[in-house]
Each structure stands twice: as C-alpha cells, then as structure tokens.
Design goal:
The complex is a heterodimer of chains A (about 240) and B (about 425). Chain A has about 240 residues and is an alpha/beta fold. Chain A contains 8 helices and 10 strands. In chain B, strands 1, 2, 3, 4, 5, 6, 7, 8, 9, 10, 11 and 12 form a 12-stranded mixed sheet that branches. Chain B starts with 16 loop residues before the first helix and ends with a helix. At the A-B interface, α3, β6 and α4 of A face α1, α10 and α13 of B. The structure holds adenosine-5'-diphosphate and magnesium ion.
Chain lengths: ~240, ~425
Amino acid sequence: MTTTLHGSAVIEFRGVGLTYPGPPAVHALHPCDLRIADGEFVTVVGPSGSGKSTLLNIAGLLDTPTQGQYLLNGIDTAALSATRLAALRGERIGFVFQAFHLLPHRSALENVELAMVYRAVPRPQRRARAAAVLERVGLAHRAAALPTQMSGGERQRVAVARALVGEPSLLLCDEPTGNLDSATSASLLELLDTLHRDGMTIVVITHDRQVAQHGQRTITIRDGVLHDSAHRSEAA
Amino acid sequence: MTKHRRGAAPERSRLAVRDLLSEAVAGMLQRPARSVLTALGTVLGVGAFIAVLGLTGTATSQIDHRFNSLTATEVSVTDVGPRNAAARDMSFPHNADARITRLNGALAAGVFWSVRLGPQQAVRAAPVGTANSVDARTQVIAASPGVWQASQARFVEGRAFDGFHETHHQAVAVIGSATAARLGITTLRTHPAVFIGDTAFTVIGILKDVERKPELLMSITVPRSVAERTWGAPTDEGAQMLISTRLGAAAQIADEAAVALRPDHPEYFKVTPPPDPRSLRTAVSDDLSQLFLLLAGVCLIIGAVGIANTTLVAVLERTGEIGLRRALGARGIHITLQFLTESAALGLVGGLVGTSIGTVVVVTVAAAKQWTPVIDPATLAVAPTLGLAAGLLAGMYPAWRASRIPPVEALRR
Ligand SMILES: Nc1ncnc2c1ncn2[C@@H]1O[C@H](COP(=O)(O)OP(=O)(O)O)[C@@H](O)[C@H]1O
Ligand SMILES: [Mg+2]
C-alpha cells in the first residue's frame, strides 16, 4: 500500500481533460488528477461512453489532452513533438485492445515481432525475443499459427505478448476481455495478475464489475468524471 | 522486470529499409489475386511500350540491313536534256559506261531505256507470217553492256552481251527465263533467235536473276547501239543510267556523275543518290509507333489509376492495422512509406512482367519474320522504371491519406 502512494509515478495527470470542440462540445474527460505508481494494477470501470477509452488514449499518448499536464515516467509529454511522442509510445507503452488488432496474414510470432519493427531491432533478435514472450504467455506451441487458426483467448494472449515484447513500463488494456467468454476471460486475467506480480504496471479498462475486482485499485468514471479510487491492496 | 525509467524520452522510432520492403511485399502477397489484377494495367502499358519500341527497332535494323547491301550502293541518272525534233539524240555519250567507271568508287555503270515499238513490230519467236508466236507482253529494253554488271545479273545459260557486241552493232539479245519459256526457247545450243518486227536477234543469254532492275527479267534486252540504229534514240521516257558503287562511295559518285558524263552540259542529267537511311528510319517510327506509344501511355495511366484505387481501398480496409502500427510507435511517415512502397512494388512488378512479355513478343515476331530482334538496352532498363514511377505516383495520395488518419480513430475500427 505504501508503494502505491510513495513509489515513483508512471502516470501522472495534473488537471488533464479532453473536450471535443463540437458543436456541441463533448467533455469526454473532465479535468482530473490521477497518479498511477510503478507496479500498480489499476482497473477503470464505467458504463459505455463514460470516457474510459479517452482516459486510456491520453495515457497511451494516442490522443493529446486539451487541458492539463501529463507526465509519463516523469516526462512532460506536452513538450514533445509528434515524432518523440511516437518514439515514447513505442518504447514505454504496451497496448491490448478489445478487437485484438492482430494482422490477419501473419503468424503469431510475426505479430509479436511487429512491436519491434519500429525500433529497428535486427530480425534474429526479434525472432528470439518474440518466441520467448510467446512462451511466457503459454503460446510457444502456437508460434506459427495464423490468427484465424486461433481461439479468441489465444489471440488475446498473442496481443499481450506483442504488448510485452518491447519491455514497456506500462501495459494499457482497453476492454481486453470484451470479446472473450467468461472462462477465457478468467484465464487472461490470471495472466495479467502474473505479470503484475512480476512488477508490471497495468491499467485495465472494463465495463464489467467482475473484471474490475482484479485490480489493486479501481477507478470509477461516469460522464467523463473520475469518481473514486478504492484501494484493495490489503485484500489482494 | 520493469525498469524504472524516468526522464530522457527516446528521440525517434526507426524503420529499417529491409523491414519496409518486406512489409510492402507482405502487403502485396496478402491479396495475391487483387495484386495481379491491379498490376495488369502496368503490365499492358509497359509491355506495349517494349513491343512497340522493340518491333520498330527490329524493323528499322532490318531496313538498314537491306539498305546497306543494295540501296546504299545504287545511284541512278536520268536524262532530262533537251529532246526536240531536230536533235533527236540522247544526252548520254556513247562511252558513258567508261566515263563513269573511271570514277573512283564506281564499280559498274550502264545506260538503258525501254524501246517503243511500232504497231507492226511485235516480238515473235519466229519470222513474220508464222502464227501463234506473237508475244505482245514482252518489253524490249536497250542497254549498254555495263548494265549487266551494275544489276548483278546471273545467267541460267549463256552470257551477257559485251563491248564487242555493242561496238560492232551485233543483233544479239539477252532474255529473262520466264520470257524464254513463253517464247518456247529452252536451250541456247540451237542458237535460237527472237524477232522484233522483222529484225532477228540471236539469243546469247538467259537471265536467272538480277539484284537491281527486275524489269530486265521480263524483257528482251538488246545492245544500245543496235537499238539506236534500229529504232532511234529513246522517245517518251528517256534513258537512264544505273551505277553500282562501292559501299560509302554513292554520295560522291552522285556528285560527280553529271560532270563526268557531259562536262559541257551537266545540267542534262538528274542524279538520284541513295536515300538517307536516317530518313527511312524516322519514316518507320513516325508511321507505326506513334499511335502505339500513345496507347502504351494510356495503358500506363489506366494502370496507375488502378494502383491508386487498390491502394486507397487497402488503406480503408487496413485502417485498424494503421492504428495498431501507430500504437506500436510508427510515425506518420512510416505509414506513408509503407503504402507508397507497396504501390511502387506493384508498379515495379507490373513493369518487370510487362518488360518480359514485351520482349517475348518482339522475339516471337522477329523469329516468325526471320529477323534479328533488336531491343535497345536503354529501353529495357527504362521500362520497369516506368512501372515503378506509375506505382509511386499512384500511391502518393492514398499513402498521404493513410498517414493523416488519427491513431485513435484508426483503432476504433
Ligand atoms: N471524435 C469524437 N468527437 C466527439 N465526441 C467523441 C469523439 N470520440 C469520443 N467521443 C465521445 O466522448 C465520450 C467518451 O468516449 P469513450 O472514451 O470512447 O467512452 P468509453 O470508452 O467509456 O465507452 C463519448 O460520449 C463519445 O461519444
Ligand atoms: Mg471504450
């Protein structure tokens, strides 16, 4: 619990908000302060359209806030050019999406490798690292399979492997279990728990209360307003 | 496992050229049928380009080849001197052949004209009064002995008349083999004669072939001196001279011929040198290839539009992929380059296939015509580049658009 409060922050929002100019103007995220420390497992829960993805896109440098200051690993992101933002995104953040976003004509291994292509990692190294991460998510035997030959759970594990292979400081998951049945969901969450125990900082977005129980801490969001953050570190 | 990383944001994401190329190839192979159809326009355009230039080049070199062997060494001289009733004489002097062959570079020269026969002067194989032997079709040509060498005549039997026959007004004749057959002459051993009007001419040679003046094969040719004495100077058409020269000497001989023949009146002659090979070549290129090159251009444009269309569709279809790549650290320029490389690769493949097909067409046509195929190496080098350029041009707009899609929007797909 003390690590949560006093550890170095991976994400630090200072009055960060996002308004779509419209008309009508949409306050997708009202200005808010948020601090997620290194090694935390946080879930963000809220109904559809409440601004969860907006929060995650800002945290993942895919979108820029219209208000406030966002520090990632202590770096003020507002001061960075698009080029440096892209580089920072590629190096520090791993994404897992509801829709998996695997390239359909590439094998599991090649999909994982893709995360290292924009960092000009030489191919043999890429291969080796991708294979190692696939093994870690329990898919070593499926390295050559195409996404169409894999189950939803397997696909999402490939996506997790792809997010992990660049050794990011932050894993952002937008409704990762949205397309999975409950058994497969449970197994994926177990994988996330394992990663958390190994020290990964994880933010999982969900509209599923059940899934939200997994985090150390749950942030509720409603109509773009962050409501509370309940800590459950003792319970975990 | 997580490192504490504070400060120092990384400079920029990098995409190795090798990875860019393999992404492009993967993109192309992703939908092979569509890629093939898309490249078709470029294939046709570049193929037509090669075929047109190759066939024109091949035909031109063929013309050059013939040109070198015969036409380039032929000069003709036409008598355009005054021919009034009083001076019914021709401009060519009696020793015209010798005057020309004295020139350096001239191999042979001969004067000839077609003889106009009177109504009672048909060609016969037997004396007047004998039936069935009139051959009205046969032309009579008067020629000086030099004509035989200048036309490169070859004989089935016998020989050409020479200076002796000419100076001694010998009534001899050389006839073509077809004419001989028509007149019922099969051998010279019987010393056959032909009758022109009521003059008998002894046939001393039967022609097999000539390289120049093929009309000699269809005619009865008699010595110039005999013709002049029997029928007078040439009338309506006038006399001509055929000169054969050494290769490269034709232009100079053409310059000197008129003065050599008549230093007093060189203006009596119109000299025709061989045509300029370059003018022949442009004539061929102009006539034949302009239209086809235009067609090739149209095909290429259609090909480019096809590539542009396919790439645009691919960008829309792969919006999610674009978003994902952005999430993985790709910059806008990386997305642009990826789609641009893909369209360029499509164009290049189309260009290469088109070049191969065009070459096959040229070689096949040349083989069928027994020509030597000639394709300029520069053309072969430029053609695939044309396809590449079409692909690049076509990819510009879709690739630019791909990079403009905001990552968040792209990922929503
Ligand atoms: N490009 C946009 N323009 C205007 N409004 C938008 C845009 N994108 C999202 N919104 C709005 O912002 C709000 C938050 O959206 P989002 O963060 O995607 O919600 P969630 O992920 O919780 O379902 C929604 O009301 C949505 O309609
Ligand atoms: Mg959402």
